[in-house]
Structures are given as C-alpha cells and as structure tokens.
Specification:
The structure holds two protein chains of two kinds. Chain A is an all-alpha fold. Chain A contains two helices and no strands. Chain B has two domains: 210 residues, no CATH class; 64 residues, Alpha-Beta Plaits. Chain B is an all-alpha fold. The longest helix of chain B has 22 residues. The two termini of chain B are 31 Å apart. At the A-B interface, α1 and α2 of A face α3, α4, α9, α10 and α15 of B.
Chain lengths: 55, 289
C-alpha cells in the first residue's frame, strides 16, 4: 500500500510523513472542534450495551 | 519487572482509573470520555476514563446510517476518530500494541501459562483486515449497529465481567442468550491466548490492523544492520508475532515490543525516531524492509 524509497530517499520520505502528520493533526483538531469531540463524548458517556452483550 | 511490562500495567491502570465507580456505581461522565485511548480499552468498563477508538469509529459510521440529519455529525466524528488513529499510526506504527494496549498485556501474561504452544497459520492473519472492513466499517454503516463491539472479547472482559461483579446504580439489564454467546467467545479467545502468542493482535484486532498498515512508513521504525547480523535467529525465536525480523523488521505484523532487539547479541537491531540513525544505517547494506 505504501512504498518506502530506498536509502537516499528515506529522509525525504520522513519529511513527507511529517507534513502528512501535520495535515492529519489539523484535520483532526478542526473535526473535533466542529462537533466530532462532542459526538464521541456523548457516545462514551453511555454504557455500551453492545459491548457487554445486551441486545 | 521489565520496563515494557511496567508501562503496559501503567497504561492499563491509567485507562481505567475511575475508582469512584465503586462508590457511585456510575461510569465516568467527564470530558475525558471525548478522547480516544490509543489502544483497545472498552469504554463499557465501569472504570474507563477514555473512549475506545474502535467503538468510536463504529459510532461514527453508525451515525451515517441515521440519515442526512446526522451526516455532519457523522462526518466530523469520523474525521476526528480516524484522525487520532491515523496520527498514532503514522508516528508510532504498532508500538501501541506492544507497549500500551491492555489486551496486549493480557495476551503476554496468559501466554506465559505452561501449555502446549501452537503456531498461528499465516493465512489467518488476513482475518483482522476482514474484521476491520466488515465489522467496523461496512456493517455499522449499513445497519447502524456496532457489530465489532457486539463480538469483541475485550468488551466482555473489560465491560461485561466487571459490571456483573459491580452492578451499576441503574441496575443490570436482564442477561439473554447473546450475553452468554459473548462470554463463550471470550472463553475461547482466552484459551487461544494461552496456546498461541498474541492471537487477538494477529487475527482479530481491527485497531492493530490499522496501525500495522503504517508500520512501513511510521516515523518510529526498526532497522537491521546486515553487517552486524550474524544470522543466529534469536530475534525470530523470541518474536511474539513469529515474523522473520531480519528480513522484514517493519512488517505490518510487528507489535514493536523490541524483544528482538533485546535478544540480539550483536546489536544489529536498532529502533527509534532519529533520522540520523537512518543515515548511519544507510551506509551499511541492509535487508530490505
């Protein structure tokens, strides 16, 4: 799925990965701000009946 | 006690510190529940502080099922939870599996119980990707139900069993046949954990499946020096996920427990984030990763 270039390109790849990390972090932060966090919070505050086997 | 074991215990306790449950019989309701624990830790556990990433991802997909009114909420929660998991994967790969996840700790401990040990067939490793695709993504999207959570043995162990012992203030719902089916799955998986090393990580865990996809590109990586490697095979012998470390140190299966590095007498295996380490190692011929 992902290909790491050999030897001399490893550092270039690392820079690309760092940029990708930054992009993902910003996307995650914005999504959390616009309602993602509150949605997960609401879900986490209830006892998960699926998890404990109650249908 | 080895450093890794100490950290595993510390993370298991840190993920489940809500001892106030014993007095109030109510689960933690604070804002930390909006954060995802990096490993698989069921938030049905009465002591859980954080949310399970896989439970949260299923929740995001199930919101899409509810219709257009929920689309925006579903979209943002998916980007948020998916972003957390992808971020951890890109930085550490499966390091969480080896050092943080409580289910990894339980497997490591159970496998030490004296019993016949059975190797895992290679083809079974693909099961976790099927679990991820169908039980975490597709079925919650199509049905609105958290299908992986319904079957997850971690939920039975961390959620159902403690809640049976320490009943919540709201009362325990009547347990039906499905509950006993889940307990049966848990029992089978526990036996399997005794017989095989890390079977849940290797065949069932959808979170490990996601993290493993990033092992080849994560900022944290392992590298093997061909010049220093003597071919003794100790790394392969100690590996809990039975991979050929010297040929494929950054395999998607590797949980980065670093037992291979500990076992290597010639110092041929290194791990870390430091790019200069890669420069030094690029000078020597190495096995492809």
């Amino acid at each position: 799925m992902f290909e790491i270039k050999e030897d001399n390109d490893l550092l270039t790849n690392r820079k690309m990965i760092l940029v990708a990390v930054l992009v993902v972090f910003i996307a995650m932060f914005l999504a959390a701000f616009f309602g993602g966090f509150s949605s997960i919070l609401a879900n986490g505050r209830t006892i998960c009946l699926d998890c404990i086997g109650i249908l | 006690m080895p450093k890794r074991r100490l950290l595993q215990f510390a993370c298991a306790i840190a993920a489940n510190p809500w001892v106030f449950y014993l007095k109030t019989r109510k689960i933690y309701q604070g804002h930390a529940k909006g954060l995802c624990f990096p490993g698989l830790n069921c938030y049905a556990c009465p002591f859980a502080l954080l949310s399970c990433p896989i439970g949260s991802i299923q929740h995001s997909f199930s919101l899409f099922h509810r219709g257009l009114d929920f689309f925006q909420k579903a979209f943002y929660s998916l980007i948020y939870t998916g972003g957390v998991v992808i971020l951890i994967g890109m930085i550490t790969g499966r390091l969480v599996c080896g050092w943080v996840c409580p289910i990894g700790l339980i497997q490591d401990i159970l496998h030490k119980i004296p019993a016949p040990k059975i190797r895992l067939p290679e083809k079974m490793k693909v099961l976790k990707y099927l679990t991820l695709t169908f039980l975490v993504f597709i079925l919650p999207l199509l049905t609105g139900v958290h299908w992986f959570s319904r079957l997850c043995p971690a939920g039975s162990l961390q959620g159902a069993v403690p809640l049976l012992i320490f009943k919540p203030a709201s009362g325990m719902p009547r347990l039906g046949p499905f509950f006993w089916f889940k307990i049966s799955i848990l029992a089978l998986v526990v036996i399997w954990m005794i017989l095989t090393s890390r079977p849940f990580c290797r065949t069932l865990c959808p979170l490990g499946a996601i993290y493993g996809l990033f092992n080849g590109i994560s900022l944290y990586r392992l590298e093997v020096s061909r010049e220093k490697c003597t071919g003794c095979g100790k790394c392969v012998t100690v590996c809990p996920v039975e991979i050929n470390v010297k040929d494929n140190a950054n395999s998607p299966e590797c949980v980065r427990c670093l037992e291979c590095k500990k076992a290597c007498d010639s110092g041929a295996i290194k791990s870390g984030f430091n790019p200069t380490f890669s420069k030094e190692y690029r000078k020597s011929k190495r096995y492809s990763s």
